[in-house]
Write a structure and sequence with these properties.
Elements lengths: L1 H18 L7 E8 L2 E8 L28 E4 L3 E3 L2 E3 L2 E8 L5 E6 L14 E7 L8 E9 L2 E7 L1 E9 L1
Length: 166
């Protein structure tokens, strides 16, 4: 009994302490409309902090959860097409495979913690897009819905994929 009270107290103190701390990669939400389709993206925003992220800590050619902490999710409010491929209305894990000259955008049935349990067989869609350079260096990873596209920006890289009505 005494042990469980001490354990409960320790957990309470830890929780109070943790709540007061700022997350290094805080949660963020991108919302918008692409060709009449509502799009909501929940993700966490890592910052470069002087480190080489894309092609460094986040290696090229490997599946990335497209943010930090939990897997990024994308919710489509209607049947849609992503880069011309049909996708049913719903919520999906948004994964990417970054590359210097090409990125693979992945919508997956699973929304889990990170990319550790990512399973390719649960992919709903894979499309290839070309990266470009943003107007200026982007310290903190951002996602936005602009001009009927979802745009990812970080460091010296910008990637967009088009969403249209399905």
């Amino acid at each position: 009994m005494k042990r469980s009270i001490i354990t409960a107290f320790a957990l309470l103190v830890f929780t109070i302490f943790a709540v007061g701390q700022k997350m290094p990669s805080p949660p963020a939400k991108a919302t918008g409309t692409a060709d009449g389709v509502s799009v909501t993206i929940d993700y966490h925003q890592p910052s470069a902090k002087g480190r080489k992220m894309l092609g460094g800590i986040n290696p090229y050619g490997e599946v990335w959860r497209t943010g930090a902490n939990a897997t990024t999710s994308i919710e489509l409010g209607a049947n849609a097409k992503v880069e011309g491929q049909a996708v049913a209305k719903g919520k999906y894990g948004l994964y990417t495979i970054p590359g210097e000259n090409e990125w693979i955008i992945i919508l997956n049935k699973d929304i889990k913690w990170g990319a550790y349990d990512y399973t390719e067989k649960n992919d709903v869609l894979r499309v290839k897009v070309k990266p470009s350079k943003p107007a200026a260096f982007v310290e903190t990873f951002t996602i936005s819905v602009e001009n009927n596209s979802v745009v990812l920006r970080w460091e010296n890289t910008q990637v967009a994929f088009k969403i249209t009505k399905g």
